TrEMBL record:
Domain of life: Bacteria
Family: Belongs to the Dps family.
InterPro entries, per database record: DPS_DNA-bd, DPS_DNA-bd_CS, Ferritin-like, Ferritin-like_SF, Ferritin_DPS_dom
Residues annotated as domain Ferritin/DPS: 17-156
Annotated protein name in UniProt: Dps family protein
One Pfam family recorded for the sequence: Ferritin
PANTHER family found in the cross-reference section: DNA PROTECTION DURING STARVATION PROTEIN, GENERAL STRESS PROTEIN 20U
GO molecular function (one): ferric iron binding
Amino acid sequence: MKIDNGISEKDRKAIANGLNHLLADTYTLYLMTHNFHWNVKGPMFNTLHLMFETQYNELALAVDLIAERIRALGYPAPGTYSEFAQLSSIKEVKGQPKAEEMIKHLVHGQEAVTKTARSLFPTVDKASDEPTADLLTQRMQLHEKNAWMLRSLLEK
């Protein structure tokens, strides 16, 4: 059935394509954060273990919200590792880095998701797609806060 929500098919497709990248970045950050939660060790173990758990739980909810917005726009959401690897701007971390390196990777990941979300605004604004704009704003606020909190752990 044709979608008639006031957003042209061309704009819906462009927004969905952008959201595919946001979904891939978010899922990649989720996997990285969950991996680090499982494997962190050292003097900051408890603090980081709990912080990473809070963050990966929130990211798990976020991937659902993003995928559902893609579907509401009338397009399929990517959902495989290979699709996410192609679409994500976040590179996989090999091995088991030390806690401080984990934090640095996560800061970069949080910032990458923020940049991906921010890059969608011109298309979203042009189409007057307020639901997607709201989603993007909420994502950016959370990722900027998480990046700040993680960066704070690196200060001497």
